[in-house]
Each structure stands twice: as structure tokens, then as C-alpha cells.
Amino acid sequence: MTQAVRHNSMRARNLGVVLGEVRRSGPVTRAALAEITGLTKTTVSKMVGDLIEAGMVTESGALRDGERGRPGTAVALSGRRVAALGLEINVDYLSACVVDLTLAVRLRYTQAVDNRTSSPVETLSHLEELAHRAVDEAHGEGLSIAGSTLAVPGPVDGGLVHAAPNLGWHDVRVSDLLDFPVEVDNEANLAALGELWFGSVPGDFLHVSGEIGVGAGLVVGGTLFRGARGLAGELGHVVVSPDGPACRCGGRGCLEQYAGQDALLRAAGLAGVPDGVSTLLAHLHAGERDSLEACERAGQALGVALTSAVHLMDPGTIVLGGVFARLFPWIRGSAHKTMTSRLGVMRRAVPELTVSRLGGDAATLGAAGQVIHRVIADPWSHL
Amino acid sequence: MTQAVRHNSMRARNLGVVLGEVRRSGPVTRAALAEITGLTKTTVSKMVGDLIEAGMVTESGALRDGERGRPGTAVALSGRRVAALGLEINVDYLSACVVDLTLAVRLRYTQAVDNRTSSPVETLSHLEELAHRAVDEAHGEGLSIAGSTLAVPGPVDGGLVHAAPNLGWHDVRVSDLLDFPVEVDNEANLAALGELWFGSVPGDFLHVSGEIGVGAGLVVGGTLFRGARGLAGELGHVVVSPDGPACRCGGRGCLEQYAGQDALLRAAGLAGVPDGVSTLLAHLHAGERDSLEACERAGQALGVALTSAVHLMDPGTIVLGGVFARLFPWIRGSAHKTMTSRLGVMRRAVPELTVSRLGGDAATLGAAGQVIHRVIADPWSHL
């Protein structure tokens, strides 16, 4: 390693240490940053200068420094320049959002489109348009996009979407079909990270993404559990009844066949109705019996699958997101009752069922948030 | 912090660093230890002296030091003094083992006893006898017991066995009923650690403990996954069929009701037969039809539960232990077939089913191994 390379690697490390501390403690004075990080004041000042130039931090008015009693200038994260693009392809919509370095949401687009009837190339071409629109508008606001992550409804293994059965995708390498660089991750994983960073639930939960597919992401101690190959959390294919209806995954009686959005609408007699979930909600509010029963039965199946998930994964709480968040008042009761009757003897406390406030945006927000967290961990690579 | 306390805390840390490195790299010279750890040669020599005195390391003949070409004395872990006691209470046996600091197994006892018919106090009094016998024999060999861990067949929450349904235990605080200090942990967790430290499978697997109860322990990257409250891995109560036979856990159709040892013997027409598993094995070898069918059906149920576990936890491989290890040739086929047909579309590779070489000893070995790993991480507390 030459001396210059070693010097750069040390600067890169220090820059990450300083920016990380600004995120945790900001607004914070340079003196306090030096004290917390153990770096010299000269180093801290140099790093802060670089970060100001990169538009990652900003200096605000005088802040009294508690330790020393002298006023100093406060340094805080800046949302004015660096931002990230979060994207999602789901079965019946595309969405995009732009989040700045302070995790403030700057733009959101959602476009209803049935991606089951189009090829991966067509769907990704629609996504490209949406992404370009979002990036153009972000540029108009003076933002620069540091990177983007795309959420897809299926397991992702090294950038390859091996199977997204609800989209009809097999072995699609997304990055080959887009004209901008993107990282691809599973929708349920990113929704769990969205809940962690943008939601209201503390760091130990199983986030359940109810869409046409059903997925889950387990967060333990503030970290997403991914399993050995990054394929953990496929709650939608947990077996509810081994001889139940055939599922697109090749199995039978998977949770999706009882509590996925399509199954739910079918059970409520609303299959194929445009904007079926809104119609279902109207029926539920009106006390329509088929709709109430469909939700109760979906809640029971969800309770059975969550019983297996709790026995295996031991989550702190369970957060219902996506369509389950909208239907929460009508599915919570039977899901909770099923879990309590099955888990009560073995556990002193059955995990609480709560509702996500993010609804359908969780995955897109998590996708953008993932980029922001990487920028903060390694600002040097984004200067 | 006084200077003396700070000095002791630094010595404690350095002692752990040196002993850890001896475990990883030993036999190793003092010079090499200094180079790897970054400690001065004087500090390393002092630490090695303390560890020799404590009987934790030993000095062997000259070892040529590759770096410098000078011969040095090699330092290695010693199995001569420090040891750990591993204990297990299971439904139909008690067991104990003593493992020394090099993880060599020094003593093993297993005692067949039906713990369903005795109270926690009686069972723990039998265990006490077994433990004292093991400790006495270990003392006779010059070993000193640094600590003990007890494996129990049920979830353990902060030392409390809330429910071990197969033992009929509820809210038993084991340490209050024993005359020696012991840490209590779940049998399936400790069996997974036993497989990690004493078995032959690398660091990413789900270890399934088939006994009268069925449990599992997930190891990811060489670390046991415990969940939010340490209650993860209860594979035996994963729902195979939601309206199936009632289980002692309060649920219905749990895996244990299809593939637990009692259920298997019942299905094979061997309920209540003394040493039923050996009889079952004899029948299987003889090609007896009821026994073959019982194993095939148990394998199918195991395949359904493992399908849910793979979807949720994404293990590297799956290791079958306990009674499943003895029955492996007769349950593997149907379990593998069930998993492949259900998982094949979603995953490029279905996790391999392998067999544990440790059999029924995994939990007891893991219990002792856990103590040894703690001694090596913090030798100062055990001087």
C-alpha cells in the first residue's frame, strides 16, 4: 500500500466516523465531535469542511457547548443535496420515491398497473420511465441521486430474481434490463427496513407485507435477518394446510392461498373487481357478511402461519403492513385469537399484533433508506 | 475507576486475547502470539505464565518460528485441569458429560428414566446425583469444573422453564432446586451448538433434534440465532395441519404429533414397547410394513414443517439429529421429496438433508461446550 493510498483510506474511515456521529448526535459542535470520536479537532474540522462541500452536512447558528461553556457552530445533516431513489415493482403497481440524507421523503409516485399481463421487459421499461421522471424532478429541486434500490416481490439471490411467481418472472437479471444502476432486493425485506427507519415500531419485530403475495422481514436488535442466502421471510409460502389449494410456488395450502389479496377478494366475491380492496373496505364498513367472513378466515390462516413463524423465529412484535394494514380492524381479531389459542401454553407472552403506519409505501421507503444508510456509512465513495 | 481496577480490567482483556489466539492458532510460540495480537512480548510472556499457572495452557517442545528462523517453545491449550459439566434432562433420559478445555470429551453418562412420571423436584434430584457422580470422577482425573449448563426440552426465558409440555413442567426455576450453580438453556439450542463445535457440518445449518419433543436450532455464520426472547427454533410446534391431533402445547396438528418419537412408535404399532426405538429399528431392517409406512409419513410431515422453516429462516443445510439420526435412512426420502416438490420453484437449491454424527449426545456436548467457550472468552473470571 502506498502512503497516498493509506492516507486516503484513513480519510475515508474518518469521514464515515464523523458523518455517522453527526447523524446520531446532530446538531453538534466540532468540539463535541472531536471529543466523541477521539479524532483531533483539526481532523474533525477538515472532515466537516469536506462534508459541507459535498452538501452532506450544514452549519447552523451558534450552539452552546455544554462541556466547555463556549458557543460553537452546530453541524447537522443536510437534506439539500444528496438523495436516494427507492423503487418498487409489485403485482398491481409500480412506485418510486426520493428520500434525502435526513430521511425526509421528497417525492412519491405510485402508478396502478397490472404487471401480470406484461413481460419483464415491458414492466421494467415502465419502471424506467417512472424512475427518470422522479430523478428529473429531484434534479429540479437541486438534489443529486446517490444510488437506487429496487424492491421486487420474490426472493433475490445475487441480483437474480429466480422466481417471482405472482409476476410470472423466472430468472430475470433486472440490472441487465435497466439503463441506470440499481440494487435489487426482496420487497418484504425492504418493507421491514422501511418500518425500522420510517415507522414507529422499535427494533425487534416481524413486518408482514400483505399484497397479492405475502412476505415478511424479521428485524432483531435493529438488524434485518436474511438467512444463509438472503431468502428468509417468505411467510406467504408457509404451509397453512398441506392439502390446500395449489399455489403458484409449486406447493399447496400456502398462506397466500388464504390471505393474499387475490384470495381475499375471491372469498369476498370481489374477484376481478377494479380497485377491489377499496370496494372490500366499503363492504366491510357496511357490514357486508361475505366480506366480513372472508377477512375472518384470512385472519385465521394468517394466525396459523404466524404461529409457525413465532415458534421458529421468536419475533418481538408483529407489524401488519400493506393491504393487511388497511384491513387491520377486520383481520386482527381472528388472527390474534388463533395465535393465542396455539401459542399461549408455550409462551408467557404472545407477540402483539400491531399495524404499520406506512401501508404500501414501506418497501419503496426502505429501498431509498438502504441507499442513504450506505452513503452515511461510507460518504467517501459518494463525494 | 481506580488505577488498580483499570489495570486488572486490561489484564483480563489481554488474558482473553492471548488464550483466544492460542485456541485458534496453537501450538504457537510467544513471539508469534505477540505478533498476531499486537501485545508486547513482555505482556504475552506474563499472560502465558498466568495461563500455565491456571492450567489452561501448556508448553511443549521447541517449535521453529517461521518468521524469524529461531526455535521457540510452543504454547497450546491444556486439557489437564479446566473442564465443564454438560447436563441434559430429556423426556426419557438424563445425561451428563465432562469436556475439557481442548473440547475433548472426558466422561459421558446416560441414564434411561421416564421423567414424565416424576415431579420436577424428583427429576432434578436424580440429575443432582448424576452430576455429583460426574464431578467426583472428573476430580479423580485431576479436572476442575469451571461451570455447568443444563439442557431442558422446552423454551427457557431468563432461567425460567415456562413450559416443557412433554415433561409436564410449568414455571420451574431449575436453579432454585439444585445444590450447584447451573445455567439452563433449551435442548435444541444446545444441540445445535453441539453440532457446531463437536460435529462435522460447517457454520450454516438448521439442526433438528428429534426426541419425544422435536426442536431445532439455527446456526448462521457460526452463531446461534435465538430470536427476540431466546425462544426461536420450536420446530416441533410448527403447524403441519391446522385441524390435526391436539398437542400438549395447546395447539393442533403440530409436527410433534406426526414425527415426534411417541407419535412415530404409535404409528408403527409400538406404543409403550420398552426401548421402542431399537425395536422400531429392528422392524425397519426387517422390512416390516407398518414401521416403514410410519417413517414415511413422519418424513412427509417433517418435510412440510421444514418447508415452512426454509421459507422463513433460509438455512444453509439441515442436519437431522437425535432419533431422526437413527431413523435417517427411512425418513430422509419422503422428507426430501416433500421439500423438493414444495420448494423447488421458489429456490434454485433446496437445502440438503444430512445426518448428525452426534446422535443423542449433541445437547449435552453443546451444554459443556458453551461453558468452555465462555472460559476461553474470559479466562480471568475463572482463574
TrEMBL record, chains A, B:
<dbReference type="InterPro" id="IPR036388">
    <property type="entry name" value="WH-like_DNA-bd_sf"/>
</dbReference>
<feature type="domain" description="HTH marR-type">
    <location>
        <begin position="18"/>
        <end position="59"/>
    </location>
</feature>
<dbReference type="InterPro" id="IPR043129">
    <property type="entry name" value="ATPase_NBD"/>
</dbReference>
<dbReference type="InterPro" id="IPR000835">
    <property type="entry name" value="HTH_MarR-typ"/>
</dbReference>
<dbReference type="InterPro" id="IPR000600">
    <property type="entry name" value="ROK"/>
</dbReference>
<dbReference type="Pfam" id="PF12802">
    <property type="entry name" value="MarR_2"/>
</dbReference>
<dbReference type="InterPro" id="IPR036390">
    <property type="entry name" value="WH_DNA-bd_sf"/>
</dbReference>
<dbReference type="Pfam" id="PF00480">
    <property type="entry name" value="ROK"/>
</dbReference>
<protein>
    <submittedName>
        <fullName>ROK family transcriptional regulator</fullName>
    </submittedName>
</protein>
<comment type="similarity">
    <text>Belongs to the ROK (NagC/XylR) family.</text>
</comment>
